[in-house]
Amino acid sequence: MRVPLSWLREYVDVAADATPDDVLASLVSVGFEEEDVHGFGLTGPIVVGQVVEFVEEPQANGKTIRWCQVDVGDAHGGVRGIVCGARNFFAGDKVVVTLPGSVLPGPFPIAARKTYGHVSDGMIASAKELGLGEEHSGILRLVELGLDPDVGTDAIALLGLDDVAVEINVTPDRGYALSLRGVAREYSHATGAAFRDPADRPFDELAQPTQGFEVRVVDDAPVRGRVGASEFVVRAVRDVDPTKPTPAWMVARLTLAGIRPLGILIDITNYVMLELGNPIHGYDLDRLSGGITVRRAHAGEKLTTLDGKERSLHAEDLLITDESGPIGLAGVMGGSTTEMTDATRNVLIEAAIFDTVTIARTARRHKLPSEASKRFERGVDPLVPFVAARRVADLMVEYAGGTLDDRGGALFAEVFVEAVTLPRPFVSGLIGVDYTDAEVIAALETIGAEVTADDDDDWSVIPPSWRPDLTDKWTLAEEVARITGYDRIPSVLPVPPSGRGFTPAQAGRRRVANALAAAGFVETPSFGFTTEEQNDLHGSASGEHLPSVKLANPLDGQAPFLRRSLVPGLLQVAHRNQSRGLTDLALFETGTVFLPAPGVRYGTTVVPPAAVRPDAATLAALDASLPPQPRRIAVLLTGDRIAKQPGVAAEPFDLADGVDAVRAIAAAAGVDVDIAQAQRAALHPGRAGSVSVAGAEVGYVGELLPAVAAAADLPGRVIVAELDLDALLEAAGTRVVAESLSGYPAATQDVSLVIGADVPAADVRRALTEGAGPLLESVRLVDDYRGHGVADGAKSVTFALRFRAEDRTLTAAEATEAKLAGVAVAAERFGAALRE
After folding, report:
1. 530 vs 146, higher pLDDT
2. pLDDT value of residue 587
């Protein structure tokens, strides 16, 4: 909201020496956000001049210029010669002259310069050059503004170009501040300055005839049980002259407020909207057919709005209609058939109160935000329409030469604001400040509320009509804190209870993330949204279609599904980095995935109120409405592990690096993993493995198929791994931070076994571990050989075994005995034989 200071001073006492920054600081103190300061960007000397005479001189380029003699007053050098290219002025016209040394918006400094064979000693300005609008077709003639000042008068002050506007950000719950009335009241709250309410007019001035023009509201489909229009006031002004100039002060204020001047009739309706906060619409009364009916749209109806677009209407849209059909989208934009034009002679003024939700939905449905809808969807003071309609009528009589008609129409309902019970100790308990009863009452009465004590010695508070956001004791408490000053609220850090820290699961996740970061990986969180195709490809081993959760209102319509895998997000991050020249990537992410069960419909339409803690049954129902969301960890490797450098060739990432990452994760989690060859739809055959803990599969590791990598716009080899982090940490149980080390030496032996080529080495390793017993400290696969000396369909696997006892030095015989016991189990299960 842009607030011209000259306009603000009409309704509240602003100190004469107050700067825009001072005004902004005061408004910030009552909860607004400072945005900017706007001015016209002009510096003098800019004065009123009178065209004495001119000579038209055709030029070689086909253009005709005027060599003008312009009287700017004795104080500014008398008659000056000025070259001008415009042709819309006449001898004797008074115009705005920017003399050498002045600066126009841009900045555009003015100096005497030679052009077209003359020295132009200044410039005759247009409205656009002065910042008063977009019209740049000709010179600004002061007679068109109804002005006849003396030659040499300061044009900056004359046209209000010395005014400035402060801009504040108005939050959606404080729509009353989208008006000078609301901002002036808030400035009064901040400074204690006297406030003069522009809506405070004697009732007899507002007496509105309810006969003479038929007005009806017919709403057969109210939204949330609320009819589309609760008030509708119309007044008629006859014999207006739409060609009369808008006063210069009004043009300046509208321009500073960000509203483009469009002619006296429309300018007046916009001016009153900014002044009182009630959007106003004006109709050409002679183009109306019969009375006005406010109703919902019918199937198939269309309306051409003021922007020239034909719009197909929705059954929920609220319309302004006459006997010919729709003539406007209520509270959003009028229709073209009844708009005010230069031919308008009789005006019907409309001021109304429309349902906030209806207006908000209509504006969004038609992608048609407007100054009117912005105010109606936030809530307009229901006591203002009569004042606003009369204010517009008065201005049209005064500046457009009209006559107020004694006919009109009105529909209105009794304004009832429900009282809110405010317990006496509640505000101090919530805010943390020891407010006195007098302070609480004074703060609430300052904002316009009525406060009385009820039978329980609490307060009954009736909020003011312009504050629909004050609906409960919490919002009232916030107002007390705002009015009495946020600086009184103490800054106290909560003291955490002793003896608490991370839960085991939290500590485990932190440990795993730190291990990957220490190994050179970069954590890259991504959005949890993807496509159904990506879910099918990466969310299942075979690539089959599995159920996914689809959002009803996704942020991105092309990715409306919640992810079943972390890999699609990592692929997007890798592609983004590749496109920016970062080709060597080691990425990881931890996050939840969403795995709905087949045939189960998730989601709920029951949303508990935010101000009340849900009971156990409600929380259980909400939990049941959500799909399983296990936490996973995924890594992605692409590019070079070692960059090329003098004497060292580049070494690209390969599958072994992915396996190392998996083992680093497992070690940090506190589990031992087995990796066996497997098949997955997105992974290269022969370069994919399943990861298991104690025989239970917890994830996979492998190289993406070249086609899958290419589809993600990733050149070269891409290694990925994804593990169920919850399952890993659950399998680890309570992790021993440190174990005592035996002081006795280890005995090491190797064993080579011949097994079938299709037998996973991990299964053989597990058999050796079980058979060797407690003396076996570690077992590690060191070789997988297939070739000469080994039969077709078989392979030789070699394991390095380490044995150790806690109470003695093992003999070679004891180590051999334990090894052979493990070989026996492997032979029994898989037909393993010692390789000779």
Report:
1. 530
2. 96
Q: Do 666 and 672 touch, CB atoms closer than 8 A? A: yes
Rounded mean pLDDT, 792-807: 92
In this prediction, residues 804-813 reach a mean pLDDT of 90
Q: Where are the domains of the chain?
A: 2-40+164-191, 46-158, 203-411, 420-479, 504-595+630-732, 747-834
Question: Beta-carbon neighbour count of residue 550 at 10 Å?
Answer: 13
The DSSP H or E segment spanning 571 is helix 567-579
State the residue for tokens 């009028």.
334
Candidate CATH numbers 3.30.300.30, 2.40.37.10, 3.30.1330.60, 3.30.56.10; the one for domain 420-479: 3.30.56.10
Angle at 255 between CA 403 and CA 180, to 5 degrees: 70
Q: What's the fold here for domain 504-595+630-732?
A: BirA Bifunctional Protein; domain 2 (3.30.930)
Q: What angle do CA 65, 69, 71 make, to 5 degrees?
A: 140
Whole-structure pTM value? 0.67
Residues 6 or more apart whose Cβ sits within 8 Å of residue 43: 102, 103
State the Rg of the chain over Cα.
40
Torsion-angle region of 699 (φ positive above 0: left; ψ -120 to 50: alpha; else: beta):
left
pLDDT in tens, 559-590: 999 999 999 999 999 999 999 999 999 999 99
Q: Which two tokens stand for residue 672?
A: 């031992």
Q: How far is CA 274 from CA 33, 257, 652, in A?
A: 19, 8, 65
Those residues with Cβ within 8 angstroms of residue 328's Cβ, 6 or more apart along the chain or in another chain: 281, 303, 305, 319, 320, 334, 335, 338
Reported as a single tens digit per residue, the pLDDT across 12-31 is 999 989 999 999 999 999 98
CA atoms of 163 and 166, how far apart (whole Å): 10
132-141 core/surface letters (b: 16 or more CB in 10 A; e: else): bbeeeebbbb
d(CA 404, CA 346): 10
For 286, other C-beta atoms within 10 Å of its C-beta total: 13
Q: Residue 449 pLDDT more than 80?
A: yes
Q: Coil, helix or strand for 191?
A: helix
| Residue 657: HSE in the Cβ half-sphere, 13 Å Cα cutoff | 24
| 720, β-bridge pairs | 636, 702
| 287 has a pLDDT exceeding 90 | yes
Q: Report whether 359 contacts 373 (CB < 8 A).
A: yes
Total Cβ atoms within 10 A of residue 551: 14
Q: Give the residues across from 796 on adjacent strands.
A: 754, 785
C-alpha atoms less than 13 angstroms from C-alpha of 506 in its C-beta half-sphere:
4
pLDDT of residue 553: 86
Read off the pLDDT of residues 205-228 as tens digits, 9 standing for 90 and up: 666 665 678 888 888 777 777 788
